[in-house]
Design goal:
about 325 residues, Rossmann fold, D-amino Acid Aminotransferase, Chain A, domain 1, Dna Ligase, domain 1, 3 domains, six-stranded antiparallel sheet, four-stranded antiparallel sheet, D_ala_D_ala, EC 6.3.2.4, D-Ala_lig_Van_CS, manganese, D-alanine-D-alanine ligase activity
Length: about 325
């Protein structure tokens, strides 16, 4: 499958003005966000953009009130970086920012509500149960069928996730996930290929980059495999022929259905037995570390890391502006 993005709309970095690279924050994904943010900061500066690091939302709010920045590159993973808070702050002060708007950000931060939207549109996603305090987790597991995944509904980077194969292990998995805020999600564990599809805004709308099939050395793609291990394999494109076309179309449909825009990453499982593609979640501020997936997908079609950062930032300027 041949895939090309439209040429960049701008070549002069001055068009972006003074850019805040929002990173860090107090959440569970702080360290990953710091790594991502440093990479983005270095890449933008290397291309002449007047970019500056801002650690956390309170510092960003102060800077915006003081009129210090013209736009925001949001690479604050999880928490207020992806739940609509940063997006609402920027919109209140008419500051352009990268990524999805308030609705798409808030919705996709909640894995349960995202699944409900997808199911209402007949988009495929694994069976699930919402777990609230006092719920019978054993009954929920029987309804879905072991094995299951138990995870916080509003965390990322595989934080607080357990794979449960035996009924006796359910309570410990719930206790781990309950350390994090929000509801808990019990989901059918799909055994098969773990895939992800980066989506980036092009001039004609969202475009899926080649998929990546993730092959961790261990049993699954956990935090260590994502950010620490050098043994994880990334196969791009992850699928062949019509299957690759199908996963790209599904990712764009899921992205749009959830109200997303700008850029993001859609995670998908392919059932080993049936070949079915099942949607897991959308990340609206995906990782941009040395191990991250969106840069790998972009590189597969000739877009290097600095060029990718430029394109993400470019999406903060409406297409009609470039046409003037």
């Amino acid at each position: 499958m041949s895939l090309t993005l439209s040429p960049p709309r701008f070549t002069d970095p001055a068009v972006f003005g003074r850019v805040a690279v929002l990173l860090g924050g107090p959440g569970s994904e702080r360290e990953v966000s710091l790594q991502s943010g440093q990479g983005v900061l270095d890449a933008l500066r290397a291309r002449g953009v007047d970019a500056h690091a801002i650690d956390g939302v309170p510092e960003l709010a102060k800077a915006i009130v003081a009129g210090e920045f013209d736009r925001v590159f949001n690479i604050l993973h999880g928490g207020d970086g992806e739940n609509g808070v940063v997006q609402g702050l920027c919109e209140a002060f008419a500051i352009p920012y990268t990524g999805s708007r308030v609705l798409g950000s808030a919705l996709t931060m909640d894995k349960i509500r995202t699944k409900q939207v997808w199911m209402s549109l007949d988009l495929p996603t694994p069976r699930y149960r919402r777990l609230q305090p006092g719920d019978d987790v054993h009954a929920a597991a029987r309804a879905i069928g072991l094995p299951v995944i138990i995870k916080p509904s509003k965390e990322g980077s595989s934080v607080g996730i357990s794979r449960v194969f035996a009924d006796a292990d359910l309570e410990a998995a719930v206790a781990l996930a309950a350390r994090y805020p929000g509801e808990l999600l019990m989901e059918q564990m799909v055994e098969g290929d773990e895939l992800t599809v980066a989506v980036i805004e092009d001039v004609d709308g969202p475009l899926a980059l080649p998929s990546i099939r993730i092959v961790p050395k261990g049993a699954w793609y956990d935090y260590e495999a994502k950010y620490i291990s050098d043994d994880t394999q990334y196969l791009c494109p992850g699928l062949d022929g019509e299957d690759e076309v199908r996963i790209g179309a599904l990712a764009v449909d899921a992205f749009v259905a959830a109200g997303c825009s700008g850029w993001g990453r859609v995670d998908v499982m392919r059932d080993r037995r049936t070949g079915a593609l099942l949607l897991l979640e959308v990340n609206t501020a995906p990782g941009m570390t040395s191990h991250s997936l969106v840069p790998k997908a972009a590189a597969s079609i000739g877009i290097d890391y600095p060029a990718l950062c430029w394109r993400v930032l470019e999406a903060t300027i409406p297409v009609e502006v470039a046409a003037r």
